[in-house]
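Lay summary. Proteins are chains of building blocks that fold into shapes, and those shapes determine what they do. In this project we predict the shape from the chain. Here is one chain we studied, written as its sequence of building blocks.
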Amino acid sequence: MAKKTEDKVIALEPIKVKYAEIFIEGDGDLVLNKMNARNERMLNDRDNKKVREIPNKWEDLATAIHWKEDIGIENTFEELDEEKFGQLLRENKPCLSAFGLKKSFGQAVVRNAIDTYSTKFDNAVNIIADRGLVPITFTEWSCDERLMSPKKGSPVKVYLNHFGGWRASFKIAYTENVYNLNSIVNIINLAGFGLGIGSGRTSGYGRYHVVDVK
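And here is the predicted shape, written in a compact code that computers can read:
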């Protein structure tokens, strides 16, 4: 006679997720400079040996920024001028990368000897951001022109976006099994003080501190 198998009942414990909004304020200029559309075109077309195009400063500046509202230039490559770029700054919003923010928080955990690895923090905290972007507000914009030396070839002129008087806010979802909200905010402050966000962090750009939590 076959033995009767017993059904096992697995109790699912709900994850207790909490939410908060973190408000940060810059302690200096923020530099935003992802790969622009022209450089992407050059990389994609390097095997076709097309004629090197003449740089458009305003397209380089605009496409080196993540924007809250998609500007479509990456796909259409329409020419930009100073007036159109100014309109973008007034009517759209430059953004930070939520991925970059969270990565810096994990680095702060390790570098400040809070934990040996950032795994526990990564599992306990998520940034909630539309399209993975965190919009900023700012009071000043300026362009920094520099000559940079690539690994191959002659030096090239690059244009960097500098934002002064900048602020941002982002929402987090977290569990308190490892870090409570106070600890998370302290880690974010450590990341803002020692690591910063955006380009030029090794030169001291992109530093910030928490000004409010809701």
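What the prediction tells us: The chain has a mean pLDDT of 87.
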